[in-house]
TrEMBL record:
Alphabetic keyword roster: Cytoplasm, Methyltransferase, S-adenosyl-L-methionine, Transferase, tRNA processing
Sequence ranges assigned to domain tRNA methyltransferase TRMD/TRM10-type in this UniProt record: 1-75, 118-266
Membrane-spanning intervals of the chain: none
Binding site for S-adenosyl-L-methionine: G150, I174, G175, D176, Y177, V178, L179
Organism: Corynebacterium maris DSM 45190
One MF annotation (Gene Ontology) recorded for this entry: tRNA (guanine(37)-N1)-methyltransferase activity
InterPro entries membership: Alpha/beta_knot_MTases, tRNA_m1G_MeTrfase_C_sf, tRNA_m1G_MeTrfase_TrmD, tRNA_m1G_MTases_N, tRNA_MeTrfase_TRMD/TRM10
UniProt-recorded name of the protein: tRNA (guanine-N(1)-)-methyltransferase
Subcellular location: Cytoplasm
């Protein structure tokens, strides 16, 4: 997978070099280019913004800067081709991590029937469609994703409209709140997407059981010791009875979902045992 990020704060994207993403870079599963948008600014001050048409507060990012930058990112040309890719922040040991499981099938998500001849352009904006785990799954099979980080009041809308000639464009929000810029949203989206790329997580089953994968929130997790500060791990987890443990986990997942995100239950197909758990819980 190839990621290109256009931003006026390239240093904000430094976390993409760390931990599992850094390891994916090292394994050549992932390559990332972070590009300073000001390289496409043409005036003496390298300005990327201007006052809003029609008046109002703040500044809007200029189309004459974003247009050529996105053209180059789609084509891998100009300053985009000249930027060095991110390297991993720290070399990772070739030994498997403790949760790497031999023989666990890697899961690739469906690519759907969308024409993928154009790269995907993700434009973070609070006015976009909410980003979901289903998006992360779908995008985990993309070959090339370009991210356009807005600042100020955002990017001139014509940039997004024009980009549709070269990209499949998605305006996405990471939540109902307003950030200062798109960089943090890119970190969120990139991490959620890349961890689903086959080979990135040591133990594939860990994301197959994650919250949202089956439409529910995941229930609580425990590790050793069995007793800590007077609190015991639920007894069923020490029983060794895997059918019972699976049922308990499903019940916990249902009960937590009902308590925290009851609307999610509407979209889930419930078995008789699920209904019983909800009635009794
Ligand atoms: N004027 C815009 C509005 O009200 O919709 C907000 C612009 S915001 C201050 C600046 C930039 O931060 C946006 O262009 C976008 O890149 C990013 N941003 C802010 N909140 C976001 C969110 N919830 N999801 C994704 N990106 C966000």
């Amino acid at each position: 997978m190839r990621l290109d990020v256009l931003t006026i704060f390239p240093e904000y994207l430094e976390p993409l070099r760390h931990a599992l993403l850094g390891k994916a870079i090292e394994q050549k599963i992932l390559s990332i280019g972070v590009h300073d948008l000001r390289q496409w600014a043409t005036d003496r001050h390298k300005s990327v913004d201007d006052t809003p048409m029609g008046g109002g507060p703040g500044m809007v990012m200029k189309p004459e800067v974003w247009g050529p930058a996105l053209d180059d990112a789609a084509a891998g040309a100009g300053p985009v081709a000249e930027t060095l890719d991110l390297t991993t922040a720290s070399p990772h040991l070739s030994a498997p991590r403790h949760d790497d499981l031999a023989g666990v099938d890697t899961q690739t998500y469906e690519t759907g029937d969308e024409d993928r001849s154009k790269p995907l352009l993700l434009v973070p904006t609070p006015a976009g469609k909410p980003f979901t785990q289903a998006d992360a799954q779908a995008w985990s099979t993309e070959e090339h994703i370009v991210f356009a980080c807005g600042r100020y009041e955002g990017i001139d809308q014509r940039v997004v409209d024009d980009a549709a000639n070269r990209y499949r464009v998605r305006e996405v929000s990471i939540g109902d709140y307003v950030l200062i810029g798109g960089e943090v949203a890119v970190l969120v989206i990139a991490e959620a997407v890349v961890r689903l790329v086959p080979g990135v997580l040591g133990n594939q089953s860990s994301h197959q059981e994650d919250s949202f994968s089956d439409g529910l929130l995941e229930g609580p997790s425990y590790t050793k010791p069995r007793s800590w500060r007077g609190l015991d791990v639920p007894e069923v987890l020490t029983s060794g009875n895997h059918a019972l443990i699976d049922r308990w986990r499903r019940d916990q997942s249902l009960l937590r979902t009902r308590a925290v995100r009851p609307e999610l239950l509407d979209a889930v197909e419930l078995s008789a045992a699920d209904r019983r758990a909800l009635e009794q819980g």
